[in-house]
Amino acid sequence: MSAAPTSPESDVRRLIDEGYAVALVDGMLVVSHVPYLKPSGSVGRGELLVPLSMAGDRVIAPRVHTAWWIGEAPSETDGTTLRGVNVEDRSQRMLHFEARARMLCTKPLGREFHDHHEFVVTYVALLGGPAAAIDPLVTARVRARPVPVDVRSGDFAYLDTATPRAALTSFNDRIRGQTIGIIGLGGTGSYVLDLVSKCCVHAIHLFDDDLFEQHSAFRAPGAATIDDLRAGRRKVDHFASMYRGIHRGVVPHALRIDAGTAPLLDVLDFAFVCIDDAAAKPPIMDRLAARGIPYVDVGMGLHASERGIAGALRTTLVTPDDDTMIDRIPIIGDADGVYSTNIQICELNALNAAFAVIAWKQHHGFYAANRRVGNSAFVLEHGIIHNEEFP
To answer: Nearest Cα to 117, choosing from 47, 53, 70?
Structure first.
């Protein structure tokens, strides 16, 4: 079957038919064997990486005019910096390449590129011009054996074009393929799902036995319709249906995690514990510890005062090699405590979820960290985050 005129396959095939060595990898057009002139004056070949602009499964006109270059700094024949293209040494690792990439920037005068074909051909001409002056026979049209066109979106429902656009592939690799569990789909847990669903994890298991009710809609991401409320579905089924629109790996479990069901957690690489029932946490924590699964536990204790809502948001990280912060997690129910008021406010749920996801990503090196924070508490009325470091 031939590819549709607007499909990624056809966009790549057009360049391949003209002799370019092109592949589509992780939302980027990769053009190999592009000739250029090295600073030493010799002709070399590099790879041009072009972020692909798409709308669903259709290729659209490029929305950016920057690209990435794997190779030495391209030069003119007199040894000066290449003209017509702004070259920035960002020293960014891209895709599977071992070498660091440089950012390139150019655009047609007074307009954007019409399509990705014009984008590639323009860049190749500018990069290869000085090389052709040294060797007139050098060309990027090497007629190499066609590279398989990889249009798979992995665990996403469609290609992730945000990651290559921001050059974050090497950082995403640090969390890629993980199986994540979210225990509790209340206000905070549902926002954790919203954030994790945009990450390149393999699967997201949801654990909750509650119904999605009318009050749930006012402390959850998205905009539930009245038909959603009339459906009377379990929270896990409601959110799985919603977030499978972007991530294929959302798996609902309409049950409560206790000593009997805790073995379901064994498949996880990381867990988010987002329940407000302190007494229900010990079997969860025991199972995660027994299987060496790191996790973040979150808590939100709010109370109403004459001056307004006050309280704190807690984020606690527990890892197999360091559980020193585990005593910060309440495990005994307190009917008269601040948690009993059950004040849930969506922006604070979202903030607590963001803290939790940042802790997870920081644990895996996605985010830089000068200190190893194991527990943090954001005090609302002070606007201050109190951090406790691992010993």
So the answer is: 53
- How many angstroms separate the CA atoms of 128 and 124, rounded? 6
Does 1 score more than 50 pLDDT? Answer: no
Which stretch of 61-75, 160-174, 185-199 has the lowest confidence by average pLDDT?
A: 160-174
The predicted pLDDT at position 151 comes to 47
* Other residues' Cβ atoms within 10 Å of the Cβ of residue 345: 16
What per-residue confidence (pLDDT) applies to 99? 67
Q: Which of 203, 213, 348, 329 is nearest to 273 (CA)?
A: 329
Tokens of 214: 């009318």
Cα angle value 291/296/301 (rounded, 5°): 135
Q: What span, in angstroms and rounded, lies between the C-alpha atoms of 68 and 87? A: 9
- Half-sphere CA count of 370, side-chain side, radius 13 A: 1
Residue type, 66: T
**pLDDT, tens only, 234-246:** 999 999 999 999 9
The pLDDT assigned to 92 comes to 66
Domains and CATH numbers, the chain: 8-152 (no CATH), 174-389 (3.40.50.720)
Residue 21 and residue 47: Cα distance in Å, rounded? 10
Q: Which amino acid is at 233?
A: R
pTM score over 0.85: no
Alpha helices of 24-99 — where are they, by DSSP H? none
Supply 99's token pair: 């070498």
For 380, phi and psi rounded to 5 degrees? -60, -50
Distance, in Å, from the CA atom of 32 to the CA atom of 70, rounded to the nearest integer, reads 9
